[in-house]
Request: fold
Amino acid sequence: VVGRLIYEPLIARPDKLYGGGIGSSYQRQGLALSKHFKKINFG
Reply:
């Protein structure tokens, strides 16, 4: 087992939802490798 997620019910509805409307940083980003990988240019 590498990891496990446990989803817990919320006590109340959140005031704000995650997304571009509140300036969420990771909204609509594509897949990317970690900063610990070196970029290799082929060409």
User: Anything to note?
Assistant: The radius of gyration is 17 Å. DSSP finds no helices and no strands in the chain. The chain has a mean pLDDT of 83. The CA atoms of residues 1 and 17 lie 31 Å apart.
